[in-house]
Every structure is written in structure tokens, then in C-alpha cells.
User: Fold this.
Amino acid sequence: MYKRNLLYQFGCSAKALISKKLNLFCFVTLLAYLLVAVSTKLGWLGADWHTEVGDAYQPPSGLHYFGTDVLGRSVLAKILHGTEVAMSVGCVVALGAILLGAAFGIVAGYFGGIVDTSIVWLYTVVTAIPTIILLMVVALVLGKGMQTICIALVVTEWTETCRLMRGEVMRHKSREYIQAASAIGASTARKIFVHLLPNLLPLMIYQFSLVFQTAIKHEVVLSYLGIGIQNKPSWGIMINDAKTGLLRGIWWELFFATIAMFLLVFVFNILADTLRDLLDPKLKGR
Assistant:
């Protein structure tokens, strides 16, 4: 019964999510990003991005929609691969950071004591280190590449989720429904997964959107600095490559890379805010 009610709640939320034109636009745009990322990953799109398709620095035209770069390669094909990199890093990092942060936060908030003290000490130490410095250190120690970027970002991004989840669990575990579950002999696992977790889901969804956006921006920064993605187009690498031609009026590579990143972050943020409001019981009926 509980599972059916939860599925019904998600179904109603999904219907309400796309009922407004802005939300529908954002949903379709995000779906397009996902399709582009999957198609590029499978080699259906942009497979020949490294191939010279024309003269260097050709502006956008009917032949090359997004123009060409310094080596005569298609900027459109590079944008497609940058999309696949951004979506991969964003999804992997957000999922990993949310799961890790939620697990530590729930354990700390529910059990308290030495467990809580140890976890609070751990995320305090990680938070005390400037994020960009920690990212650079991890990237330099583990080497360059997408896998390293994902590990480094998960290490730095789980702490905020852990802190928020710990506070929410501490607030919820003293409420009547948890006490009632304890009175009828519910196990710890049942109280956490059946009673606590559904009430924490809106916060987790919102945190997923924040970490997703942060991961994309940090990946762009690290790739811009030359310690991120290697041997593959990335929006950060494209922005770094385009800065030399900007003074000569060659704007299209920087422009399209920036627009692609902005649009993805924008639509994901709008959808995440709307979904959080729909799932949060405190905001229903507003």
C-alpha cells in the first residue's frame, strides 16, 4: 500500500511538473540534453569531432552551423561531446555525493553519540579545505581524466548533504510518527527507510540539483585550468581554447560553449525547484 501511494504521489507530481509552459520547456530541453549525451556516448553523434571539416575559424553558416575552430574542426561536434561530458560528470557526481552524504547524515542524526561526533568531525575537516584547492590536489594525485574528476567532486560535495540530512533526521526522529513506529516494535531499518526517508526525499532532490550544477561548473573550471578532462572536448577546454581568438572577433566557440552550459544549469534548476515544491508536504496547497 505504501509503495502504491508513493508511486501515485510521484505520478501526480510528474503531471503537475509539466503542466506549466516553462516547466514543459525545461523538461523537453533536459530530455534533449540527455538524448544528445547518450547518442554522443554511443557514437551516433559527433563521432568525427577531431576531423577537419573546413578552414580555420569559419563563422557560423549554413555549412557549419556553429562555425569551426582553429584547426578547422566543427564546433557543433565539440559542443555535443561537451554535453556528454557534462551530463556524465553531473549525474555521476550528484548521485554519488547524495548517496554518500545521505548515508552518513542519516546514520549520524539517527544514532548520535560517538558515531555522530566522528561524522561531524569528518565533514568539518573536509569543509575547512577550500574546494578548488582540494579538487586540484585530488586531481593532481590521482591523475587527469573524467574518473578522477568524478572522485574529486564526490569527495568535496557530499559534506553539505550530510550536514542537512543529519539536521533533518534529528528533527524528525523525535516526532510522533517515529515514536509510534517504535511503540509498535518497528525495526531501525523500517523506521529509516519507510518512515524517515520519504520525508527526506524532497531535500535530497533539491540537493541533487545543486550538486549537479556545481559538478558541471567545477568540471569546466578544472578543464579550463588543464587538469580536468583530457583528449576529449569539454566546455572548459573549449572556453580556454577560445580566449585567444576572442580579441580577433572569433566569438562563436566561446559563445556556444557558454550558452550550452548556461541552458543546462538553468533548466535543471527550474525543474528541481518545482519538483521539490511538489514533493514537500509543507509546500503543498500553496
